[in-house]
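INFO  loader      accepted 1 record
INFO  loader      residues=208
INFO  predictor   begin
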Amino acid sequence: TDKAEAGAKKRLQAQAFLAKSEEESAKAAHEVMIAQLKDYLKDGSLTKAEYDQAEIIAEQKLQDKLLEIKKKKAAAEEKILTEAYNKKQSIRDLELQFATDSKTQADIELEIQKAKVEEAYRIDQSANGNKVLSEQDKNNKLAELDRNHKLDQQERDDEYITSEATRKLENAELERELILQQYDQGLIDKDEANRLLVESDQKVTVAK
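INFO  predictor   done
INFO  writer      dumping tokens
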């Protein structure tokens, strides 16, 4: 996955360089055109009205070209990032298939799920995205995945405890502890923490 990220980073840098070069060329060509128009205006080949109209058209053409370059760059970046994501997920899927113990499988599955959250947020925030997700929404979801991962780990560790009530109580208490830790670390916001604590306290009460 590190190679995939490094390769994607280099390709993004190349696209940025190409876009910057195209923008500079478009602006240089625009400046040459404006200079020529000014010469025509100065020697009387163009009237002021003709010059003004030509300048407006030239400026519009420049803005259209810059927008075209921007869209082209965004499309290329989206393609690179999507390919890199798919490649990393394919590698993780392959690692999951060959994982030989439950802990390793759970760790890889966590990476896969967290990557999906990050990718969904990236797409939402991209140029063509809906921009309906906040960074806190993403962080809350990542925190939820981490909590569930640790709770699942405790369940595996407690599988030999014969008392189901004891297992449920330990699980509920751990969940509450994890929620408070994540709030203290700034991984979830106050509203999310309060909502989760209400649910967690109910689980603790029922387990007791």
